[in-house]
Every structure is written in structure tokens, then in C-alpha cells.
Amino acid sequence: MAYEIPVTQARAELADLINRVVYGEERVVVTRHGKPLVALVSAADLARLENLTAEEAEGTAAAEEPVIGSVSSSIRSVTSAQGERADFGIVAKHEPPERR
């Protein structure tokens, strides 16, 4: 659990808060009007957070590739019957983008 402190008090106690984070291995959440504003974490915690974020981003992209591939391979061109276009007053025609 993190130690919470109002921003006005945090200004006056910044050096002590840094010591709590670095040496006491605490996390400090600075609040304004009772709502979290910023967090003070150790450099080691920050590095772990950045590594997790990078791994999640890579995992998400890797997980999406097969889905995108399967969806795009299942999309096919569908043409409406000539009568339907006239019945609904459709005058525009969709042209799929050219494949490179």
C-alpha cells in the first residue's frame, strides 16, 4: 500500500519523502483535493514498470497479428444484385482499395 500525502504537505517534506521511497522502499502518492495526482517510486520500481509496459505492448501486437490476418483473409468482395441497388435508390458504388 502506498503512503498518501497532500501536495501542499509534500512540497514541505520532499526530501523526507524521497528518503522514504529510496531507503524505506515505500511508494508515495501525492494527492490534490483527495485525488491521486502523482506517485513517487524508486528508480528500480520505475524500471520494472517500464519493462512490464514494453512487454505488454509487444504481447498485444503479437496477439493481434493472427487475428488481423484471419479477418483480412476472410473478407471477400460482395456485390449487390442489380435490382437491389435500384430498389433502394443506391447510386454510389464502393470500390475497394487497390492492393499493393
Describe the structure in your own words.
- The protein is α+β, with helices and mostly antiparallel strands and 100 residues long.
- It has helices at residues 7-12, 14-22, 43-74, 82-87; strands at 3-6, 28-32, 35-40.
- It has a domain at 3-70: YefM-like fold.
- It contains four helices and three strands.
- The chain has a three-stranded mixed β-sheet with strand order 1-2-3.
- A hairpin with a 2-residue loop joins strand 2 (28-32) and strand 3.
- The relative contact order is 0.09.
- The mean pLDDT is 78.
Radius of gyration: 28 Å
Order of secondary-structure elements? EHHEEHH
Number of strands: 3
Mean pLDDT: 78
Q: Mind telling me the CATH superfamily name of the domain at 3-70?
A: YefM-like domain
Class derived from helix and strand content? alpha+beta
What is the helix tally?
4
Give helix % range.
40-55%
**CATH class label of the domain at 3-70:** Alpha Beta
Shape: elongated
**What is the CATH topology descriptor of the domain at 3-70?**
YefM-like fold
Termini separation (Å)? 54 Å
Strand order of the largest sheet: 1-2-3
By CATH, the architecture of the domain at 3-70 is named 3-Layer(aba) Sandwich
Largest sheet: 3 strands, mixed
Stretches where pLDDT falls below 50 for ≥5 residues?
Answer: none
Strand-residue proportion? 15-25%
Which characteristics define this entry?
alpha+beta, elongated, YefM-like fold, three-stranded mixed beta sheet, 100 residues
